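Researcher: Please predict.
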Amino acid sequence: MPLSEHEQKLLEQLEKQLHEDDPKFANSMGSDPGRSWSTRHVVIGVLGALAGVFLLLVGVTLQSIFVGVLGFIVMGGGVYFATMRSSSSAAKGTKTGTGKAGKQRSSFMSSLEERWDERRRGEP
């Protein structure tokens, strides 16, 4: 079942707060909202890896060490480029707007505390 818009906004705010409070833990969990997989990077990286494999095979058939090593380097670079994550404009916006984020976070936290208190009062 998909999340509602309100729930998605709350989840995004919680993720941003986690990245502000404990960036080391957030990065280890791999849920950085400012960095995402780029289809363009994957396609170019795969093409580069295939070109590297081709060069490697050409180097083996020609018995040329230089062409084989060049093919291996190109192949490794293609794999690296394919697995690289690109940063989006969202990451730039959160880095520049730290003053507003603090105010939003405090109001967000206070609203969560109020909701928690309301739930606690409603329970027997």
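Model: Helices lie at 5-21, 23-29, 39-61, 65-83, 89-96, 98-122.
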